Amino acid sequence: MKQIIELSVNGESSEFAVEPQETLLEALRDRMGLTGTKEGCGTGECGSCTVLIGGKPILSCLTLAVECHKRDIVTIEGIGDGNDLSPVQQAFVDCGAIQCGFCTSGMVLSSEVLLKENPNPQEKDIYKALEGNLCRCTGYNKIIEAVHKASEQMVTEQE
Amino acid sequence: MENKLDYVGQRIPRKDGPVKVTGRAKYTVDVQLPGMLVGRILRSPHPHAKILNIDVSRAERLKGVKAIITSDDTIGVKHAFVDTPRYPADEPPIAKDRVLFVGEAVAAVAATDADVAEEALSLIKVDYEPLPAVFDVEEAMQPGAPEVHTSHPKVKEPLSNIAGKTESGWGDIKTGFAQADYVREDRFESHLRTHGYLEPQATVASYEPGGKLNVLTSSQGPFFKRAKLAQTLGLPFSRVRVHKAYVGGGFGGKIDLFYHEFCAALLSMKTGRPVKIEASREEIFTAYRHGEPLIIEIKTGVKNDGTLVAQQFRVINKSGAYRGTGVVVIFLAWGFIIGAYRVPNFKYEGYAVYTNNPPRTAQRGHGCPQMRFAVESQLDMIAEKLGIDPLEIRLKNARQAGEILPNGDNVYNCGLTECIEKAAEHTEFKKKYGQARSASPSMGSIRHGIGIGVSAYITGSLIYPNSSSTVIKMNDDGTVTLLTGALDIGQGAETILCQIVAEELKLPMEDIEVIAADTETTPVDIGSWISGNAFVTGNAVRVAGTEVREKLLSIAAEELEASLEDLVLKDKCVYVAGSPSHKLTYQQLVSLSIQKRDGDPIIGEGHWRTVRGEPYHPSLATTKGRWSDSYAFGAQVAEVEVDIETGQARLIRAVTAHDCGFPINPTLVEGQMDGQVSMALGHAFMEEVLMKEGRTLNPSWLDYRMPTIHNTAKSEVIDVITERYEIGRPYRTKEVGEGYVSGILAAIANAVYDAVGVRLYTTPFTPEKILQGLGKLK
Q1: Considering the domain A87-158, what is its CATH architecture?
Q2: Range B31-131+198-249+254-287: architecture per CATH
Q3: What CA–CA distance (Å, rounded) separates B293 from B190?
């Protein structure tokens, strides 16, 4: 039986009739067309489906849509401001932290949360924050570099 | 003309960065079309069985099922990666009469949604009669082993299940070994790894009533897919259009024609509606194609000073249930030996052998990591025996610029010696090597080791589609559009091609629009799987750019009444040198060209292929014929930590000194190197697809451990420049995306030995093997 839920995604609230077994990932991709959130495995192992709920990164492939009733959800489409990239996004572009791009949405969202909570992270903090996001292309080196660069950028902007 | 480079060689951010970092890049899995059906594939649960009967009647009656296909719905044409008179195609696009591996497609369904499609699969009743199966490759070769396919008729030895054989040699192997002061024989074995592309395999096929098949598919090149789809569906090439979608990684695993592609297309033809088939990660692990493990027996003879005098190889490829790229990798394995060192007397035999495991396929480096692991490990053993250091023995035998390989290829600008020297110098190799083995026990349980490995790799070869062609057209506003068949799979193909256009035309990157990888609107391209993008497609783009530039200059010369030599391109204008106000904009020149050149809006075209003048690919069976026009060389040093109590080892630092000709984009080159180092450390320490009787035991990323951020190794890259980019001239730059999974794997093995004195003959280098080597585990 379908259930009516209200989702606030990237600051916009809408109601949806969803199946009880429908995942948040399916709701985002199939109902709202927010395909920036990716499914790499569907079993919570790769982190490609990372979105933010209440400002925390979660795996949308393991989260039921009905659990998200009236929660604030941010997807990659909600990062940055129109045509302007966020400092994290810009650093990913500038540092070459993107190759195939399939893990990028999840990587960026996990990094956004890290830098919000800890504007000046050490290497070990970055490891901890991104440990749930698999990347096959980059070996992570340039992703780590990008997070450092974004951190420097954000600290400079605040000063 | 002045050769100041503004774009080539610069760290220009990738062109598709913004679209990827905002989630706007559309991959095949993201595509939704009106009326689209969901397809699913019914796969064999048996490693070897007769199909007695398939009953689809119950499934057909399920509401929402729109079509079901079996082999009866196909035209019966087989396909394969290799399809030659010697090696005719051997794979039915859907199994007929017999299944040969767990996961082989038996039927496929298109339905209104995924749940209905999956329910329909469970309602299809297939009666099987299990047949004897064989999984171990050396058992499969024995006379009397269960027959997967009849042994190749041209292989006369009394062996079973031989899919193909490569034989090559030169000099006199007997005399060579007789001349040697020291001869040793070793056997190395590699294991099964998956590619680990993050984007699952997926296809959207949409057949139009007029008879046109439109396909979006996650691949490594659209032209190969078009050819195979057209052939198996009985359509003319021109009725199949493969479109571009962003691709979430390939690494060799998305080249072949797959069941989901064929079935999506045929289901769409049957229903007249778009059909999407997406593989689950579990399906990818269990039924799709992983890399090709090799058994390598190597016998090497050297003089006391370390000079190689003879080398003999026997290589066995575990091909799986169909030939696939099995006969390619036994050819390539030969090829990846010949580039690095001079060996005057040489003999090679490679066998591709069928088993009832899933077919295998190309995987980044395609045989090179396995071969370099064997060759470089043995070389270190030889050096130790002779009392020579690992650098010296490599430098003594390393090929030099301008050498001709035994197959007739010229290595041209070979920087191998410089690579070895630079990698060693940068890591203080001589100072560090051998230190751990003389360490006192007081240093705790961690031992540090350092090791080196080298590799040589081709830059494009002649395999269909063989060549690259591009068109550059100027637009009315003075910007340009590049049409290329190249497919960017993450390596940055479109970015470097735009850098070349930008350089040839002195045009900002943002003024170049790319139309790519569309079999209908873009010219043919070699594809992102033979390491030819920078060299083959890049030169094609350069030629097209030259034509456009010359047209711009010719009109400008006329209009400005200046000689060609006095003209300068800058900021989308052509100037007279020394007279900056005396200029015409590209926009004006396009307009003038249309007026004065019979309507030519200024279009340039360029073609390129490697080994020009050679009609064909070299023989897979005999290796005769030239192979490539451009070889990359590299030396890689690994520094590892090994815990002698737990046997745990990890790569902490990798230094890659590579002769890439010149880097078109150093940031992208580093990205390739970092990724290869990571893949190699996964190969060395972490990853293994475990199989038992044809079934995969660990079909998830939880149980198949791919490197996470915690496994990151420090990766340093040293560019050894052996070539110049000159505007308007052909160049010979080299591949950077495949060869460097190889030397580093060997370097890791050698570094583990340096750390703890344990020589590893099989990958992966598990704690168990290291502890066994230390005598701490039986």
Answers
A1: Orthogonal Bundle (1.10)
A2: Alpha-Beta Complex (3.90)
A3: 5
Residue labelled with tokens 């780590």: A144
Q: What is the Cβ-side half-sphere exposure of residue B489, based on CA atoms within 13 angstroms?
A: 28
- For the segment B434-456, what is each residue's pLDDT rounded down to a tens digit? 998 776 666 789 999 999 999 99
B276's tokens: 């999407």
- Dump pLDDT digits (tens) for B686-702: 999 999 999 999 999 99
Half-sphere exposure of B341 (CA within 13 A, CB side): 27
What is the structure's pLDDT at B778?
A: 83
Nearest to A100 among B198, B667, B713 (CB): B198
| Domain locations in chain A as residue ranges | 3-78, 87-158
Mean residue pLDDT across chain B: 96
Contact residues, chain B, for A98 at CB < 8 Å: 14, 16-17, 20-21
The conformation of residue B762, written as its DSSP 8-state character, comes to B
The SS3 call for residue B595 is helix
Arithmetic mean of pLDDT, B2-18: 94
Residues 6+ apart with CB under 8 A from B598: none
Q: Into which CATH architecture does domain B17-25+467-608 fall?
A: 2-Layer Sandwich (3.30)
Q: Where in chain B is the domain with CATH 3.30.365.10?
A: 17-25+467-608, 294-461+617-773
Q: Which amino acid is at B523?
A: P
State whether ipTM is beyond 0.90.
yes
For CATH 3.90.1170.50, the residue range(s) in chain B are 31-131+198-249+254-287
- Judged by CB atoms closer than 8 Å, whether chains meet at A99 and B249 is answered as yes
Q: How far is CA A16 from CA A68, A69, A77, B114, B436, in A?
A: 11, 10, 19, 20, 64
C-alpha A137/C-alpha B676 separation (Å) is 8
Q: What is the mean pLDDT of residues A110-137?
A: 98
pLDDT value at position B597?
Answer: 97
Closest CB to A35 among B30, B700, B712: B30
Helices (H), chain A: 24-26, 87-95, 104-117, 123-130, 141-158
pLDDT in tens, B300-320: 999 999 999 999 999 999 989
B708–A131 CB contact, under 8 Å? yes
Selecting from 3.40.47.40, 3.10.20.30, 1.10.443.10, 3.10.105.10, what CATH number does the domain A3-78 have? 3.10.20.30
Both structure tokens of B679? 């893949």
pLDDT classification of A155: cutoffs 50, 70, 90: confident
- What is the structure's pLDDT at B441? 65
Show which of residues 75-94 on chain A sit within 8 Å of chain B, judged by CB atoms.
75-77, 79-80, 85, 89, 92-94
Residue showing tokens 């090709």:
B292
In sequence order, what are the beta bridge partners of B241? B214
B447-480 pLDDT, tens digit per residue, is 999 999 999 999 999 888 989 999 999 999 999 9
CA–CA distance, B778 with B768 (Å, rounded to integer)? 9
State the DSSP string of B52-119: EEEE-HHHHHSTTEEEEE-GGGS----B-S--SSSS---B-SS--SEE-STT-EEEEEEESSHHHHHH
Chain A environment of B713 (Cβ under 8 Å): 139
Rounded CA-CA distance B40/B203 in Å is 11
Using the beta-carbon criterion (under 8 Å), do A96 and B667 form an inter-chain contact?
yes
A140–B678 CB contact, under 8 Å: yes
Using CA coordinates, name the residue in chain B closest to A98: B17
Class of domain B294-461+617-773: alpha beta
How many CB pairs below 8 Å do chains A and B form together?
172
pLDDT of the residue at B1 = 54
Section B480-503 average pLDDT: 98
Tokens matching residue B12:
């220009």
